[in-house]
């Protein structure tokens, strides 16, 4: 399986990193080895001094598809989740400056947190889901899927033009404002509405 990640999908996060609003979504992949194993802490890798948390809504693909029209996209997922796209920001900035790919900064082992899954039927409107991240019991990021530049079904349409979606693939839909550095001994907890979906210790 693969993790398909979207960058710059929230206006406020774009402002924060001083990026221009793109004409198309930014897309990158993480391999399955990037998934942080259940109940494991996240170890800050020795090649970075500035690993950031990016909390993101996740969508799990349940059906093989290619060139999926957005109006059929809901047939391709039943579950919504929450995760973290850990990013070695210092390394990413160096790579960006040289016009090089981001993989080393985004796709390293443990860089993808995947929390508990919720049935999409739990939500009245997939484009109106509140989510947040607490760092040591203080809310550092909060967002709502209504604020996405490209909504979930549009993302499925877009990414499936390039990549065949397979059963079990996961889409990371981008992060809202408030990304920030993590430190040893931090505890990160992710929520959709009031439900805790993951709790990660930083080491
Ligand atoms: Zn991200």
TrEMBL record:
Origin superkingdom: Bacteria
Pfam families named among the record's database cross-references: FAA_hydrolase
GO MF annotation: an example: isomerase activity
Domain Fumarylacetoacetase-like C-terminal: 2-200
InterPro entries: Fumarylacetoacetase-like_C, Fumarylacetoacetase_C_sf
Gene3D superfamilies: Fumarylacetoacetase-like, C-terminal domain (3.90.850.10)
Protein name stated in the entry: 2-hydroxyhepta-2,4-diene-1,7-dioate isomerase
Lineage: Bacteria, Pseudomonadati, Bacteroidota, Flavobacteriia, Flavobacteriales
């Amino acid at each position: 399986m693969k993790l398909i990640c979207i960058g710059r999908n929230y206006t406020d996060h774009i402002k924060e990193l001083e990026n221009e609003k793109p004409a198309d979504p930014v897309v990158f992949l993480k391999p399955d080895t990037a998934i942080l194993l259940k109940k494991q802490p996240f170890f800050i890798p020795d090649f970075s001094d500035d690993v950031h948390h990016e909390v993101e809504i996740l969508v799990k693909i349940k059906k093989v598809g290619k060139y999926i029209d957005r109006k059929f996209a809901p047939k391709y997922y039943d579950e919504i989740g929450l995760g973290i796209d850990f990013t070695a920001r210092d390394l990413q900035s160096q790579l960006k400056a040289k016009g090089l790919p981001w993989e080393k900064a985004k796709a390293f082992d443990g860089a993808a947190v995947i929390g508990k899954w919720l049935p999409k039927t739990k939500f009245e409107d997939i484009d109106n889901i509140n989510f947040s991240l607490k760092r040591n019991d203080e809310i550092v990021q909060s967002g709502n899927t209504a604020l996405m530049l490209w909504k979930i079904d549009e993302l499925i349409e877009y990414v499936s033009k390039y990549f065949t979606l397979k059963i079990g693939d996961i889409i990371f839909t981008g992060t809202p404002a408030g990304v920030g550095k993590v430190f040893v001994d931090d505890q990160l907890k992710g929520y959709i509405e009031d439900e805790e979906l993951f709790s990660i210790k930083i080491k």
